[in-house]
Please model this.
Amino acid sequence: MFVDSVDSDIAPSGTLLGLLQRGRGDGTLHALAAPRSEALSALRHCLLHDPRRDWQIEHRSLYYARLHRELDAGLDDIEKHLLDPEDLLCTPEEAEARTGLALSVLGHLASYAQTHGSPADGNAPLRLLRRYATTGANWQWALDELAVRDEDAGLRILGPAILARFPVTPEGDAALAAAAREAFEPRPWRLWAEDPAHPQQAERLRQVQERGSFDRWQQQMRSPGPRPGWSVREILDWAQDGYDQHPRQHRESAAARCLAAVAGIEERAELIAAARGPREAARAAALRHLADRNDPDILDLIEEAAAEPVEAVSRSALSSFARMRSLAALERARRWAAAPEGTLPEGLATVAGEMLACRGGRQDADAVLAALRRTVRLEGPDSEALWPLVDGAGRLTIACAAPILRHVYRETASSQLRGRAARALAATDPSFPAGFAIECLWDCEEATREVAAQHATTGDARVVERLRRLAADPAEQEGVQSAVRGRLSP
Model:
């Protein structure tokens, strides 16, 4: 009926590995009921091969750390993975993808051990994090985990080894200043800069930080971007110049913001000409500016640009339309959504459905449902275009969308999209409280657990026990615990 996920790295949703890779609550429940060796094998695979498509927005570390504790798994596999010689051959980006999840899980395990375990248990994950921080390629991630968990004395010991990574040369000092400036947690650097036991270390950090501040000031003074007094033509030329460079610099959005400060009514004809012109980046910037100003001709210009084969132009046209909030844009979206399939430029029907999902009324429910079904059929359950459509199905309470929402919930590899599907099901599916809501109490995403805490039926014995455990878990997020307390209170 629908296109399945094409991500070959994700196992089918009906398997234990597939459930754990997706971060579904059923993954934990099935792992605890499965033979321990099978559960440990699946968990190990997830820890050593991060299944997330975008680690910056999808959560797994607390989910895997909790299961790691439930299964009483050891640290041998994680230690072997972190200290493998392959780690030192990775680029910084490759090292983040390779070890970031394992380091985050170690951080949670350290917190749990400090809270619930013996001192020896609490030191084991910390010792491994400290060791990796001094020897591993992804040392900054390990240092950030330590910064919020380790004691001052433990962090101070790491200072000499971390600074030894940077040679005492102008290039090394510049890299050191960048590392200190970009650290997610500044606490270790502050401790090292104030450590009386290593005065030379403190002096070096002070000097490189001062030099880094001065270099940033000079860079701001020498900025090659638009300056006061630039004309519309100069701003459009600047955007196009970035597009023509190699590697390409995308300045369209910045140019549109500059146009907002420069362009007046007398430049409208020039901007409309640029929005129809042959220069890709200048055209994209002009489209964005005219859309932000709700120009009377912008909807026709967007329809023309959406048919362009140049991706930079068509993509800018669609994104410019998605930003619009006028009634005219909403009416045009209804017209595009009602057009027969295949008669519009690719992308217009999708962006029209997204706008109706976000801003439409009850009269647009059929169009949103049709867009939802079409997107799943053509692009599968992992399409980014599903995000606003799933939200719209819940916002408009489209009850007959429940079957397709359940399909997205089960099959998508994105835990963020699954959470959106859960919220939509809470609004559209009467079976949700006694069904998926119970599973969601073990989900990897905080927002999904919060939805479950609000809706899961307490008639199931597992629900009350899980709510109590979440309420007592110091690692649980405040939003979830507030929802839990609301359910447990008389």
Summary: The first helix runs from residue 16 to 22. The two ends are 45 Å apart (CA to CA).
